[in-house]
Amino acid sequence: MARPNSDLLRGTLDMLVLQILSEAPCHGYAIGQQIQHLTDDRLRIEQGSLYPALYRLERHGWVKSKWQKNSASKRRTKVYQLTRKGRERLEANIENWQRFVDSVSHVVPGS
Amino acid sequence: MESHPTGMATLPLRWLLRLFPKRFRDRFGADLCLAVSDRMAAARTQSLWAAVRLFVAEFWGLLVSAARMRFASRPRTTISAAPRGPDGPRRKDLLMQSLIQDIRYGLRSFARNPGFTAVVVGTLALGIGANTAVFSVVNGVLLKPLPYEQPDRLVSVYTRFLPESGFDFNQFSLDPREFQDYREQSESMEVVGFYWTGSTTLTGVDERAEELRTTAVSAGVFRALRVSPLLGRAFIDDDNAPNAPAVAILEYDFWQTRFGGDPGVVGRTIFLSRRSVEVVGVMPEGFDFGTRDLAMWRPATIDPAIPATRRSSHYGYGIARLAPGVTLEAAEAEMTTLMAGWRDEFPNIHTGHFLFLMPLVEDVVGNIRQPLLLLMGAVVFVLLIVCANVANLVLARGENRGTELAIRTAMGAGRARVAQQLVTEGVLLALAGGALGILLAVRGVPFMLALGGTAIPRSSGVGLDLPVLVFGAALTGLAGVLFGIIPAWHVGGTDLQSALKDGSRGSSDGGTRMTFRRILVGAEFALSVLLVIGAGLLVRSFGELLKVDPGFRTQGTFVARVSLPSQAYPDDEQVLSFYTGLLERVRALPGVTSAGTSTWLPLQGSSVNDFEIEGREPRSQGDLARNGIFVAAGPSFFETMGMTLERGRLIDERDRLGTTSVVLINEKLASEFWREEDPLGERIRMVGLGEWATIVGIVGNVRGDGFAQDPDGAYFLAAAQTPATMGSARRTMWLTVRTDLAPLTLARPIEAIISELDSNLPLTRIQTVTDLVNRSMAQPKFTMVLLGAFATLAMMLAAVGIYSVMSYSVARRNREIGIRMALGAAGQDVLRMVVREAMGPALIGLGIGAAAALGVTRLMSSLLYGVSPADPTTFGSVAVIFVGVALVSCAIPALRATRVDPMESMRTE
């Protein structure tokens, strides 16, 4: 497993989390798994990095959370979901990202 | 018991949460913990290694994120903290902030001293790694309870023959009649079971014929162990009846690999040695009572027709569970009473021969306990040496930092604050060393297990599990506190004024510290001398073992086993002609020098049987029993194994059915029973079997039970004559082939020959005689290599210790040496002075270590062969080595001292 550059990751991680939450509300463990899964195991996110990201996103008001009782395991789990502001942010982000990728691919041939 | 292993493992992570800002912790802490423990649980199902890796990754990730969040959010938290309440920022948060500050400061200062950091972290890692690795083996083999319900209630039953019985076996198997009598008469046992190990050939599952290891068990064995089958049924008493239908119960792994885990296997018929057998059950995973690599259990059938007085066929083992409320002592007392009764009833059998009990765990762990405890002791010593060394380094550094700390104090840092910083740095060093050490252990444990091989029982239970990780973490914590406290304590005594004035050269109170450090070095020397002497004794003992002439050639011989099922080879003629044909073809293979067959191989266990000597009175009570290892050997067996002929002739092609039956005896047997007479030409026969055989030759002794065991008496009957001399031909034989090629290259061609002769016959236990020897040496080698490694490590650490203390001493006495030289001291005088200073603690340590060794090595005398625990050669050479080590390690600082330029040294002051 390649260790991704941490600076690159930091901005990207926020976006990845938003992206995953935009599909469905999720709890923290599942977010990490989804990222690992969506990137074909290339990105493994420690919970220690994921939660600070959630914390950032929540402080910006892009994500909100609530405790839920899981009927199957009878355990309380915290479920995170995207706010309206978060969805706008994600869309803006994707747009930015697309622009970034386009401009880079102009500079770096073949990328 | 380990219901929440991952929960426990996340405990240190939860502790790390405290490093995060409180706001974050309150909102996310609980959920974060849940998610981490879920991930740990998921990783645990993959492998332990995955879990450890994840743990390390999460640990590191949390540490980094916490630091990041702290620094990123600091201005904000301090601003927002003020209006939070009338008390201002909470005390705890302040402490946390100063802690983060200390960590940052410490990390920076480590980065500035990479040499110091690398040495400290590296030696700590070695010490903690060695301890964790050895502890994980000790834990898995010695400490973990056996995997049965209430395992401490389980006992093994053995017999003992004292010399007055004519035999001398300290721990021997049981006769089935002895088992039955004990089961009926004993009231202190809930259940008594009886079992023996064997092998069989499986056919009829697929194309392959396969030899399997089996254990025959009475119905009581599973009941005593309180294990129920996963599928089907356990054995019942009726299964043990002589004419009961043949049944078998499969071992879990065997069921998985050979039957693909098919639950429909219960009720299926398989062929064992070409007899149909019904599978009636499958035992649960991990249950493998009986023998290594076992495939199935079969009922232990005991023929009730044999009278109770025939009780000398010792081939089984007993296992029993103590009845509720009965102690082992009570059961032993009952056994003594019972045995007195047996002796009255069967005086010719039970005089000096009786049953005894042994806790099952002792039986399983047996002779590996002592070596493991020895190694555990050794690594604890290594850790002590590591600690002394690191303490030395940290002390030296602390003294060099006198000025820095004094400035910090002057700037307003309280003593407690400075102490907190030093403790933090110590803990950081220890954490890094501990983490690296545990990684070393992860790599080291498989190496240790591979080295031990079959000498380590229960090795499947060895691993870096929770208790082991806790052990490693505890060592790390202890080391951290130790390294923090020592310098902090020293700072406590520093006088601020003088430290500032003196700079780093403050020498006014250096005296007591130097003494303390010399004591540390002396202690290191003593401990490592002790270890090196222990290791030296083991090396000498192993050397003696290698020098032993085993009585056979250990190189270039291929061995494998063939077993002819009686269903397919009912007649003795068929068996004999099969082996004749096999040998003919094998001898014709290119590269084969000679080939033979035998029922016995050295180092593979042996059967002992009584014999009688023609014309002599039956043995009277108390006489040496006329018995020995009995072997049926084909022609060329002795030549192939490289055994020597002392007198007479060997068994050859002439010795067939119909010619005079012949037997060879070994020197041991000859000297025991033919003290004055000439054994050649005398006749012996196995008691109760066959006809008389004439002794035609005497062969050299063979150490058949291990190189350290004295050779036993043995007699060798001609394999081709066994229908006459032993009542039947031997169907299971070892094939031995001597070759100039790499022995195992013969496996393919010989397998091809066998399958041409009979496609349903497997060739099994293919190996070389060298393999047999290596396996028998595995335990002494395991102990020697590991203790040797730890002792070498200890010696190197002690050398580093002396070097660092002397370097430091020379550096701080630079001016003094300069003055001495200015006053006319020659380089030689300075050299002598430094060496004398270094040799003081070294020689005292050497003396104490050697004296301690004299007392301690006696404890390991059972591990030594041919060497006395007080072996003067070992003690002498270790003393010489250590004087050399001390001289070499103080040489560099001493030479540096001679190059002190008097002018320069005084100018810098």
What does this structure look like?
The complex is a heterodimer of chains A (111) and B (909). In chain A, 59% of the residues lie in helices and 16% in strands. By secondary structure, chain A is an alpha+beta fold. Chain A contains four helices and three strands, in the order H-E-H-H-E-E-H. Chain A has one domain: Winged helix-like DNA-binding domain superfamily/Winged helix DNA-binding domain (Arc Repressor Mutant, subunit A). Chain A has helices at residues 6-23, 28-38, 47-59, 84-107; strands at residues 26-27, 63-70, 75-82. The radius of gyration of chain A is 15 Å and the shape is globular. Mean pLDDT of chain A is 76; it is low at 1-8. Chain B has 909 residues and is an alpha+beta fold. Among the domains of chain B are: 1-89; 163-351, no CATH class; 511-549 and 778-907, no CATH class; 569-757, no CATH class. Chain B is built from 29 helices and 22 strands. Chain B has a six-stranded mixed beta barrel. A six-stranded mixed barrel of chain B has the order 14-15-20-17-19-18. Chain B has a four-stranded antiparallel sheet with strand order 13-21-12-22. In chain B, strand 18 and strand 19 (693-699) form a beta hairpin. In chain B, helix 3 (22-46) runs antiparallel to helix 4 (48-81) and helix 18 (510-547) packs across helix 27 (827-856). Chain B is globular. Mean pLDDT of chain B is 83; it is low at 1-6, 73-89 and 502-509. The A-B interface holds A 27-29, 32, 44, 46-52, 54-55, 58, 65, 75, 77-78 and B 24, 27-28, 30-32, 34-36, 38-39, 57-58, 60-66, 68-69.
